[in-house]
Design a protein that fits this description.
Two copies of one chain form a homodimer. Chain A contains seven helices and six strands; from the N terminus they run αααβββαβαβαβα. By secondary structure, chain A is α/β, with parallel strands linked by helices. The longest helix of chain A has 14 residues.
Chain lengths: 197, 197
């Protein structure tokens, strides 16, 4: 027996959220129907409308409400650029409170399998920034995935023409982890990058 | 560093969905912001609006668009009532194609810890139906949880004054399961309810 059409429609939309399978979408839809008040549902609709008003900084690509809180902040180091793949990761890095330079959000990662070549990265604006802002250091803060690795390698080559030092986030065992559960690849990297103690 | 207010608001709303923690709500919010088109977000808003139009059958409490597809269906056995705790479970049972009687959705389950006593079940309408519809069999299809068990026991007592046979869904090992992963309580119930083979 099929769910009513209105519930079906909601399910297939919620199914588009990352990691949400068919079952979970049904669970969400029925929760919204049975346990959310009319007011809460209206609030959610309003919050969705508000998303359209979220702006992105033309320079660095991070989320900004009005003036960019990074690019327009003179207290931040202007000669350091941290390259990330998504505006969300800017917040993740900010939460460490360990970085005080600027950011640059790529338009995507290289993924030959999905047909995303170098034009998908949107590098022109990065190169322009490096030249005009007199950038001295670039930190690649990309995923440790096939796409992330490929993009890092590609950027390392492309950035050779600029007088900048390029680094990538360190690999190693996660803080607080038990060696028993660390995979071999990570352990090998942690071993070769060991530091005197 | 805090997310912009519009994203914070959306996160705290999505956080209300069942099983969605703070991290997952952030993942959903950023997916909605970065990867959903304006049109998809509008579709979702519309689907949420449509939920307000979903109706419930006054008699059995299941979801109905216009006439109830159960109560108003003469092909279904009128003397059999399956008692469930939520309109969603009606669909779950229908998918088995093993039941052709009517349903009765309780308003909730007994939960003394949450202050939900017998008045929370909404039993008046159930009792009225049993009398007027000449119900002969009642099947308790409630969770195997503290609340479900308590409600089943309570209903069993309350229904003694009516000339109906009361049964509860069978306990046993799930179909396709390996004994190794079946918990002791389930195995004990499966053992005591074993059938000749």
């Amino acid at each position: 027996m099929q769910y009513p059409k209105s519930i079906e429609r909601l399910c297939s939309l919620l199914h588009k959220l990352p990691g949400v399978g068919r079952r979970t979408s049904e669970r969400y839809a029925f929760d919204l129907l049975l346990h959310w008040s009319e007011k809460e549902r209206l609030d959610l609709q309003r919050a969705l409308t508000e998303l359209s008003g979220v702006g992105f900084c033309q320079t660095c690509g991070s989320i900004s409400e009005g003036a960019c809180s990074f690019c327009q902040n003179p207290a931040r180091r202007q000669d350091q650029l941290c390259i990330v793949a998504s505006p969300k990761e800017v917040f993740t890095l900010e939460q460490t409170r360990e970085y005080s330079g600027l950011y640059h959000v790529l338009k995507g990662l290289l993924s030959p399998l999905d047909g995303r070549g170098e034009e998908a990265l949107g590098l022109e604006s990065l190169f322009a920034r490096i030249k005009t802002q007199d950038v001295k250091e670039i930190i690649l803060a990309l995923d440790s995935s096939l796409e992330g690795d490929a993009t890092c390698l590609f950027l390392k080559e492309e950035l050779k023409v600029f007088p900048v030092s390029v680094s990538r986030l360190a690999f190693g065992i996660p803080v607080g982890s038990s060696l028993e559960y660390v995979d071999g690849g990570t352990l090998a990297r942690a071993l070769s990058a060991r530091s005197s103690y």
